[in-house]
Automatic annotation (TrEMBL), chain A:
Any one Gene Ontology cellular component term annotated for this protein: plasma membrane
Residues of the signal peptide: none
Keywords: Cell inner membrane, Cell membrane, Membrane, Sugar transport, Transmembrane, Transmembrane helix, Transport
Lineage: Bacteria, Bacillati, Actinomycetota, Actinomycetes, Geodermatophilales
Transmembrane segments: 33-50, 62-81, 112-132, 138-158, 195-214, 244-266, 278-304, 324-343
Protein name as annotated: Xylose transport system permease protein XylH
Any Pfam family hit: BPD_transp_2
GO function terms (MF aspect): transmembrane transporter activity
Organism domain of life: Bacteria
InterPro entries: ABC_transp_permease
Broad class of the protein's primary localization: membrane
Presence of the UniProt keyword ATP-binding in the record: no
Location(s), subcellular: Cell membrane
Job of this protein: Part of the binding-protein-dependent transport system for D-xylose. Probably responsible for the translocation of the substrate across the membrane.
TrEMBL record, chain B:
SUPFAM superfamilies registered for this protein in UniProt: P-loop containing nucleoside triphosphate hydrolases
Segments forming domain ABC transporter: 9-249
Keywords in alphabetical order: ATP-binding, Nucleotide-binding
Cross-referenced Pfam families: ABC_tran (PF00005)
Name of the molecule in the record: Monosaccharide ABC transporter ATP-binding protein, CUT2 family
Lineage per the UniProt record: Bacteria, Bacillati, Actinomycetota, Actinomycetes, Geodermatophilales
A GO term, aspect molecular function: ATP hydrolysis activity
Keyword Nucleotide-binding belongs to the record: yes
Organism: Blastococcus aurantiacus
Length: 352, 263
């Protein structure tokens, strides 16, 4: 009964037009494709020239910086898909690490209490960021730049005030340290190489984020909020809650990484994490996230972090000057942005 | 035909101010199941404000909104949706970068599993999307393609199918034909008629009497925030509608001004 005059022409013609969307285009629409090609290319580039780089020990070595960066990049990618930036994400890893060290050592608490306090602090900062962004409608760029600078000042000021120095240390002798070390900083032997547990967490968080993005209602809301917030709200998506939850997710990732740093190093510098926020964004963009929101992937961001880790350690393995690292990273970023633009145009070229 | 039953939606002397500006005043009309009520007006006539009141984006400052004969008051778009009033916005209906099936179920995603394993039932969503679009006679090649690759008319049609699927009893269409070519506009109007035939009460907002007159059953004409009347189709012709919209006397004045001076 619903098939009226307009119903007939569809069925036949639809089939012949379906071929227009070939497997190649379907593959190109995947946001992480560029990062995958990039990661393979970078690996090949270093692996061919350096034997250490491709050895199991070498792999474990460059997985390490990739892992902590990757955990942050995945959270930042979710936030970017949701249409926002968090410039305070880097310094927040310092804030949380310092909170763990100061609460455990200066206030003589069990390390798990300190880690709990640190999580509460992170969630509050994340909520504050998200609440302010949704409340004012101002660009998250400027709001989190504000919190970034405030936290940077707090990290230095409070650390100096409470410890008398710019370092909070002495975590190793705090009660509960060994169990915290097991969870956040242990090592295991895989194929004869020592791999840090953070690598495992990184893989786990990437899988979890991918599942949430692609297979839950919340994931659908993240894409929608970043794609067009007004439209999303008009069809009943709780866009404000989604945005605040994303900022709190980034803060939670910062807490996890900050705690990992504190437990690993047992002492924390007051300037920890400053400057890292842009690296997270670079990794997410290399991974296919659009700066305008609404498009991207968690796996892509992880691959971006992997490229970063490989480059960071590959360059010294080739005995090049480490200064070249940033040049390389910048070039990768530009390439990625240009590739993303092409892929998007090609994907949407069907009708226009 | 359904004159004895209470209308689905009724407006009584509805008004809305933005600060000191009276955006809408004294608007009354009815929307019945299986009928199309057209809201006509030039730019700035208050059409958008009227939609926003019906859709729950704004609250009316004056007058009454009756749903099934009972007073209704929507505090948010969600509440209006839950009451069965769905709105298809002109260009804000869809997220261009998202797949058709994701857009179709946006905000009302079907789920499987419970607790932390509750997940978006993608297989069902794709299946229902394909079936619902086919039922409306909409020709979609692949539910996985981004909505941004659809033409304007197709996008409107998907939005209409979505609203009908989610049990909309009242469907508000904001200028669905304004950005479209003649042929595409015809396609969309056909889907409007199809929604009507399924028993949906349609509110069609437009500034084009040529689109409104063939499909409409009742016409509410707005001018500068005020109602020029709510007419059943039998009482008004297309030319009269055009004249009313342009403000009658003003159009005569314009015609006079544009006349070639007598030599």
């Amino acid at each position: 009964m619903a098939t009226g005059a307009a119903g007939e022409p569809s069925t036949r013609r639809a089939d012949e037009r379906l071929t227009a969307v070939g497997p190649l285009r379907r593959l190109l629409v995947k946001p992480e494709l560029g990062a995958l090609v990039g990661a393979v290319a970078v690996f090949a580039f270093f692996a061919v020239q350096s034997e250490v780089f491709r050895s199991a020990r070498g792999v474990a070595n460059w997985l390490d910086p990739a892992s902590t960066l990757g955990i942050m990049a995945v959270a930042v990618a979710l936030l970017m898909i949701g249409g926002h930036f968090d410039l305070s994400a880097g310094v927040m890893t310092g804030t949380t690490a310092l909170t763990v060290a100061i609460v455990a050592v200066e206030f003589e608490q069990n390390i798990w209490v300190a880690i709990g306090v640190s999580l509460v602090v992170a969630l509050l900062i994340g909520f504050f960021n998200g609440w302010l962004v949704t409340r004012t409608g101002l660009p998250s760029f400027i709001i989190t730049l504000g919190t970034f600078l405030m936290l940077q000042g707090l990290n230095l000021g409070l650390t100096k005030f409470l410890t008398g120095t710019v370092t909070a240390g002495g975590l190793a002798s705090v009660p509960g340290y060994s169990s915290a070390e097991w969870l956040f900083a242990s090592r295991m032997t895989i194929l004869g190489a020592e791999v840090r547990v953070a690598v495992l967490w990184w893989v786990l968080f990437t899988a979890l984020a991918t599942w949430v993005l692609l297979r839950t209602r919340f994931g659908n809301w993240v894409f929608a909020t970043g794609g067009d917030e007004v439209a999303a709200r008009n069809v009943g998506v709780p866009a404000r809650r989604t945005t605040i939850a994303l900022f709190m997710t980034t803060a939670t990732a910062a807490w996890f990484v900050g705690t990992t740093l504190a437990v690993r190093l047992t002492s924390v510098q007051a300037n920890t994490g400053t400057g890292q926020e842009l690296i997270y964004i670079v990794a997410a963009v290399i991974g296919g996230c659009l700066l305008t929101g609404g498009f991207g992937s968690a796996i892509g961001a992880s691959l971006g972090a992997l490229i970063f880790g490989m480059t960071q350690l590959g360059i010294p393995y080739l005995r090049w000057d480490a200064d070249w690292f940033y040049f390389f990273l910048g070039a990768m970023l530009l390439l990625a942005v240009l590739a993303n633009r092409l892929v998007r145009r090609y994907a949407e070229a069907a009708r226009r | 035909m359904t004159a004895e039953t209470a209308p689905l939606l009724e407006l009584r002397d509805v008004g809305k101010d933005y600060g000191s500006v009276i955006a809408l005043d004294g608007i009354s009309t009815t929307v019945r199941a299986g009928e199309v009520t057209c809201v006509l007006g030039d730019n700035g006539a208050g059409k958008s404000t009227l939609i926003k009141i019906l859709a729950g984006v704004h609250r009316a400052d004056r007058g009454q909104l009756l749903l099934d004969g009972r007073p209704a008051d929507f505090g948010s778009p969600r509440e209006a949706l839950d009451a069965g009033i769905a709105t298809v916005y002109q260009d804000l209906a869809m997220i261009p970068l998202m797949a058709i099936w994701r857009n179709f179920f946006l905000g009302a995603e079907p789920t499987r599993g419970r607790g932390p394993f509750r997940r978006f039932d993608a297989a069902r969503a794709k299946d229902v999307t394909r079936r619902e679009l086919a039922a409306m006679g909409i020709d979609i090649r692949d539910p996985d393609q981004p909505v941004g690759t659809l033409s304007g008319g197709e996008r409107q049609s998907v939005a209409i199918a979505r609203a009908v699927h989610f049990g909309a009893r009242v469907l508000i269409l904001d200028e669905p034909t304004s950005a479209l070519g003649v042929k595409q506009a015809g396609v969309v109007l056909r889907y409007v008629a199809q929604a009507r035939d399924r028993g949906v009460g349609v509110v069609l907002i437009t500034h084009n009497p040529h689109h409104a007159h063939p499909v409409g059953d009742r016409f509410l004409v707005l001018n500068r925030g005020r109602s020029l009347g709510s007419f059943p189709k039998a009482d008004v012709s297309r030319d009269e509608l055009t004249r009313l919209m342009a403000g009658g006397a003003e159009l005569d004045q314009l015609a006079h001004e544009l006349e070639r001076p007598a030599t």
